[in-house]
Amino acid sequence: MNDATPPQGPGPYVYAPPPKKKHTVRNVLLVLVGLCIAGAAGCAALLGSAVESIDDEAKHDKPSEVVEGKAFEHDIWKVRRGWKVTSDGLGGVTIKGMRATLTGDSADTAMFTIQLNRGQDVLASLDCTGSEVEPGQSAPLSCFSADDMPKKWGNVTVQDSW
Questions:
Q1: Is the pTM of this model over 0.70?
Q2: Which of 74, 55, 67, 82 is closest to 159 using CA atoms?
Q3: Which residues contact 22 (CB under 8 A, 6 or more apart)?
Q4: What is the residue extent of each domain of the chain?
């Protein structure tokens, strides 16, 4: 008997080694479980990053009180003194003389919302925007509103437009 001949048992039967088990179902399930775990971990990391980003934005987006005509800082912008809330000539409200200097480290465009308030009531809201400037440069801001010019207001707040 040589090595290539399978062992023979009694009679005409040839004994073959038992067939190797294929663990296809087990392997597919393990791969699927691994993918689910990796996907869940990725989603958790993405969600954590999004929550942190939203929290940072919320901190910057809180309205801060400013005084009409006085210089103030908001995020990466310094607004010069001398600005004035006034009528636009058609019964609406605008702001004249507002100019902002970029203190950040890359080009940007100033965009603020200025609100005229009395207590908890917002009487008028103005969107102020400027031209894109480089760090250290300043630009005038144009402020527009669809609101009427209020006769009196208590305080003025500034916050991000977006």
A1: no
A2: 74
A3: none
A4: 1-60, 64-160
